[in-house]
Amino acid sequence: MLRIHFSAGDLERTQVAERVDPLWEMVFSWLRLTELDSGLMLQPWLRDVRRNGDRQVIRSGVRMLSVLAPLGPYFPDFLTPPEGALGLPSALEAIRSTPRERLRDEFKRLDDVRPTPEWTRPLAGGDGAALLELTEAMARYHAVVIEPYGSVIEEAVETDRLHRIGVAGCVEGLLRGMWPLMNWRPPVLEVQYAYDRDLHLNGRGLRLVPSYFCRRTPVAFADPVLPPTVVYPLHHDWTWERQLASGRRQQGALAALLGTTRSAVLAAVGAGATTTELAARLGASPSSVSRHTTVLREAGLLTTERQGLSVLHQRTSLGSALLGNN
Length: 326
What we know:
This is Helix-turn-helix transcriptional regulator. Pfam families: HTH_20 (PF12840). Keywords: DNA-binding, Transcription, Transcription regulation. This protein is α/β, with parallel strands linked by helices. The protein folds into 3 domains: about 100 residues, no CATH class; about 130 residues, no CATH class; about 90 residues, Orthogonal Bundle (Arc Repressor Mutant, subunit A). The chain contains 15 helices and 11 strands. Helix 1 packs across helix 3, helix 11 crosses helix 12 and helix 12 crosses helix 14. The two termini are about 45 Å apart.
């Protein structure tokens, strides 16, 4: 459990970021690329990356990030500098400018948790050429794994942000709305976390950063001296609501073509949904939804792929075009 202690002025200085942090997304994305279950909502991204991405860049990036940002209780903060809020170029420059003493300390802590290979020694020593090579490799990885999906990520993040802020109405409401990821017990925000620690804001406020590729639990900087930041997994299921709302102007004509229920099913699929999720979204029975998705699939408007005990429905380019989303 991470306990974040608020004091005078901290609530007023708490904010939700308007976009993802490119370096945090890189750290989380390599985990999604290698785990057995990356979640149904990430399956379209995962399939496209594996089908169309530069395999050499992906393999090299995953190997690099698996060493520098391993799954576990610690990875160096220098990989995700606060400058990530300003965009990728600023973030990579911040990495190249990391003080040698900090690199030495953070690599020592990493080595205590998981021994690092020989190729990391120049990085730990602050070698300029090694840091340049690292950031160039990160830029290549980002260009293949993250950048092509920017519009999808931006839409999901904006939907999550507007939902949380709109529902909340105030900072305390925002913090309460983070349940179950976080539990607001004034003046302490309890965050579901991998291990037990306390963070005192001391008037600095808190920056909440949504992440497309983070799953299950939020993550914070290991160093309490850094600007207080919590990166949290966004709520993917809210995205379909926005897509449905944006397509309502086309719903009349589409309903005349497909029928009201089938046009609603097509719109509710959003970025991807299972039969159970569609049933919940539309207030219909799974058997009824299944009949309609079969018709839509046979018409070339949906694709359906089995994922374990569930099936994932996605709109085809024709289905999106009918909704006016292309």
